[in-house]
Amino acid sequence: MEMNLSTIFTGDHLFAKVDETVPVTQVKFGNTSAIIDNGIKLQIELEKLESKEVLIKGSITADMVFNCDRCGEPAKYNFKSELTKQFRPDKTTEEEEDFIEGYILDLEKMALNEIYVNFPMKVLCAEDCKGICKSCGANLNVGSCNCADDNFDLRFAGLKDLFDENFKEV
């Protein structure tokens, strides 16, 4: 979805409003992906400034579904980002080159860029998510498992085996 900014600079319109939904259904973050319900909603205002610059202000929202980072179950996340950018179409920075080419503003690429930059590092299905059992893999939010709860750190498994082998008869 592209917008031609030349109309703001050549015409009497010093101001433009965009209230659109970008039809994106999935976003990938490395090996992780998210489903986007009902697209990415853009509510932005573009304003021509005196110094041949454009000011973009507004918000980007999306209803996303990820897998929980603790238990792997689907986790809903309501993404919202407030956006304020100021740029010159004839002098774009390296970051802006991703979504601005000349006087053409790519709204989809700008929205995806905001999602990538502002997304949290960890997504949970609930604040008190218990995760999965490290022994059997059971979802501890659904119920407990029958595994021994020895709070053993798997990083020390080799050391435990060494002690079990050498001190059997002590």
Instruction: Detail the poorly predicted runs.
Output: none
Helix content: 10-25%
- CA-atom Rg in angstroms: 25 Å
SSE order in H/E notation? EHEEEEEEEHH
Main beta-sheet annotation: 5 strands, antiparallel
Structural class: alpha+beta
Q: Calculate the mean pLDDT score and round it.
A: 82
Q: Any idea how many domains?
A: 2
Strand content: 35-45%
Q: Number of DSSP helices?
A: 3
- Which geometry do the CA atoms define? elongated
What distance separates the N and C termini?
73 Å
Number of strands: 8
Secondary structure blueprint with pairings:
Layout: E1 2-4, H1 6-10, E2 15-22, E3 26-29, E4 32-48, E5 54-67, E6 74-87, E7 100-101, E8 104-106, H2 107-118, H3 157-166
Antiparallel strand pairs: 1-8, 2-4, 3-4, 4-5, 5-6, 7-8
Could you describe the 3D structure shown?
- The chain is 16% helix and 38% strand.
- With 170 residues, the protein is an alpha+beta fold.
- It folds into two domains: 2-117; 130-170, no CATH class.
- The strands form two sheets. Strands 2, 3, 4, 5 and 6 form a five-stranded antiparallel β-sheet that branches. A three-stranded antiparallel β-sheet has the order 1-8-7.
- The chain is elongated.
- The termini are far apart.
Highlighted features:
3 helices; 16% helix; three-stranded antiparallel β-sheet; alpha+beta; five-stranded antiparallel β-sheet; 170 residues
